[in-house]
Design goal:
alpha+beta; Alpha-lytic protease prodomain-like; single chain; Alpha-Beta Plaits; 9 helices; 11% strand; 330 residues
Length: 330
């Protein structure tokens, strides 16, 4: 007899319990507590995040305008490259703001997990665009190396100072949120990369001011291009992994299997899969072979496994199939 039931917050009921005559118990969980955790992850401080992102977008766009205008009049490719990088940062922040809004939309019959994947998709688009942008910077930088032009170091210096202030302010605002959301983290990393690049522009403008060594400007732009690739590559790899349903970084299947086996009543674990619904919600499905016992005790095993998964691995959405000890068809 094969009994199968889908539900939230309780274990499947059976008249005979977890005995040899009842081979499969399908328990689709989030439990009630897991649902609360997921809601909490997505609802806490959402207003504060929205406000920070809006302020960050405004400041970044303002600096992009300043950077392009001053870079044009100063003949500074490094400054224009930095402004272009800031433009992609502004785009990243706008997309992050959009994804935060989109992820709040409820699940429906067509999107049963809701729109949580939007954040991962946005981070993928953002990191990809940054790498493409860097190639444009390389091309122009090489042109400037072959044909240097005069650069107005004074304008370059003060524009870079203002850019550094903007990047540091935005970086500080987004620091806390960047720890839990890959979309915001990608924008945050870009800001840090921009800040480092802006420091290079400041140093370069000082060198140009006192030496007239104009080739420094395209050299700095090439360095900024390399920094863009370096900061974007890790984000790109992680987002591709998540979009391909790969195991999220920092989680090892062997560790999860070993920990589940420590739960009283659990014999073996197999068919285990872990993937990210979003950067904040990790899901797991597996089969667990348990000792023969009444259904009420199976429910206790299930609760203990879910508690362990949340506390040790921050896995809040689980789909667990319980099987009796005699089940061998894995």
């Amino acid at each position: 007899m094969h009994k199968q039931m889908h539900q939230t917050g309780s274990v499947v009921e059976s008249k005979k319990g977890c005995d040899k005559n009842h081979h499969h118990f399908h328990v689709l969980k989030p439990s009630i507590s897991s649902d609360h955790r997921e809601c909490k992850v997505h609802s806490d401080d959402s207003t504060e995040v929205d406000f920070k992102l809006k302020i960050s977008v405004f400041l970044t766009i303002l600096f992009v305008i300043i950077g392009v205008v001053v870079g044009y009049f100063a003949n500074s490719l490094a400054l224009i490259s930095d402004a272009a990088h800031n433009f992609t940062d502004a785009l990243a922040l706008v997309l992050a703001l959009f994804s935060v809004w989109l992820q709040k939309r409820p699940a429906n019959e067509h999107k049963t997990f809701g729109y949580h994947r939007a954040g991962i998709l946005v981070a993928f688009i953002n990191s990809s665009s940054l790498i493409l942008l860097s190639f444009g910077i390389f091309y122009e930088g090489i042109e400037r190396l072959l044909h240097p032009i005069d650069v107005k170091a004074g304008l370059m210096f003060w524009a870079a100072i203002s850019g550094l202030i903007v990047n540091l302010v935005i970086g500080l605002m987004l620091h806390k949120e960047s720890k839990n959301d890959i979309t915001i983290r990608s924008a945050y990393i870009h800001m840090l990369g921009d800040a480092a690049g802006t420091v290079g522009i400041i140093i370069g403008s000082i060198i140009i001011r006192y030496t007239n060594f104009y080739i420094i400007d395209p050299v700095i732009s090439l360095i900024i291009g390399l920094m863009i690739i370096w900061t974007a590559w890790d984000i790109l790899k992680e987002t591709v992994n998540l979009l391909m349903e790969g195991t999220p970084s920092g989680i090892r299947i062997n560790d999860i299997t070993r920990e589940i086996k420590t739960v009283e009543g659990v014999k073996t674990v197999h068919h285990i899969h872990v993937w990210a619904i979003s950067s904040q919600v990790t899901a797991l499905s597996c089969h667990i072979e348990v000792e023969d016992r009444p259904v009420s005790q199976c429910n206790k095993v299930l609760q203990n496994v879910n508690k362990l998964l949340w506390e040790r691995f921050s896995i809040s959405h689980t789909t667990i199939q319980l099987e009796p000890e005699s089940h061998t068809d894995h």
